[in-house]
Amino acid sequence: MKNLKNWKTWVKFILAGIVAALTVYTYPTMKLFMPLFVAGISLIYFRKHFWRLAALCVIFLAIISPIFYLTLKDPAKYNARYSSTSIANTGENVVVGVVERYVEYFTPAFAFGYGDPDTMHKVPAFSSIPEVLGLFFYLGLAIFAFRLIRKKSSKFEHSNEMYVILLGTLLFPLAASITADRLMLLRTVHGFIFITFFIVLGVKYLFEYIQYRKIKLLIVLILVMMCMVNLITFMAYYTIRYKEDAKASFNYGLKETFEYVNQNDEKYSNIIVDREIMQIYYLFYSQYDANKLHEVSEPNKFKSFENGKVIFKELTPRDLRGFKLVKVVEDDKRVWYAVYCKGDTLVVRKVTQYKTGV
Q1: Taking a C-beta distance cutoff of 8 angstroms, is the pair 94, 88 a contact?
Q2: Whole-model pTM?
Q3: Residues 239-265: pLDDT tens digits?
Q4: pLDDT tens digit string along 209-238?
Q5: CB 52 within 8 A of CB 8
Q6: DSSP letters along 140-168, please?
Q7: How far is 180 from 89, CA to CA, in rounded Å?
């Protein structure tokens, strides 16, 4: 029976190593968070599970080594995303900027306030977690830290599992803190596991100091009601207004625009696209080979494809003189994109105004 139990424990560690390693491939943030998290867990459980942890680490390193090898071999290609979002690009003092961003992820603005301003990442005007629960997060974190410092922690608080939770809580903002964006939700979404845990811990601590059962029930009832109100208002906005308010963020109309361009591609020798439209969308909708993208150095031109047929550049009213409007992508409120032609040239323009003309 003991051998069977040991065998099951080995399997759990091996599976943990595999899952942790595969997580590294899911999102760039995990390339920093997961190795540090695994290293921290290994130190926490070093004495109790040395050989099992050794197996976990070997499996973890074996699986993640290809992505790190490629990143080191060709950082321009395999680390391009970080290079374009690095805090070093902002011109700020890097150390100060990283510390400021790191601290911001522990302020109410991140999880319990408006947080990430990008409407593609989060529904605007709503916090990621109901604001009322923020009180319990900080209560749980503060009392837990106080008890550890004063060495008055219980067996539960002094357990290895609690150290793992604390480790994850301290590590989750790190990768996001070295990028230019502030309060970036996508790069810290894994942190909500740890935030939720400390919210629950805060409720536990509060109830430890409340002796009357009726008061506990009243608090639970108030919390449930407030969270339900938050959920109802959130769903009402999300299902009715959000799809309209977020159209610009989700590039509404771009698919229809490039479908028209693709259908008429052979009719034109030159295709000029407004540089406000990211070139990756043209590549996606046209199924164009991204390897054919290359830089051009001519004035006002941004990127060109292959032989220069498709060019991304800043458009001015002068560029559209003599051009005929052939396609408009619009909804009830505004025009999103307009397509013009003249001779063998097709122009795609992003329209930034409501229906007052294109």
Answers
A1: yes
A2: 0.82
A3: 999 988 888 888 899 999 999 998 998
A4: 898 999 999 999 999 999 999 999 999 999
A5: no
A6: HHHHHHHHHHTT---TTTTSHHHHHHHHH
A7: 7
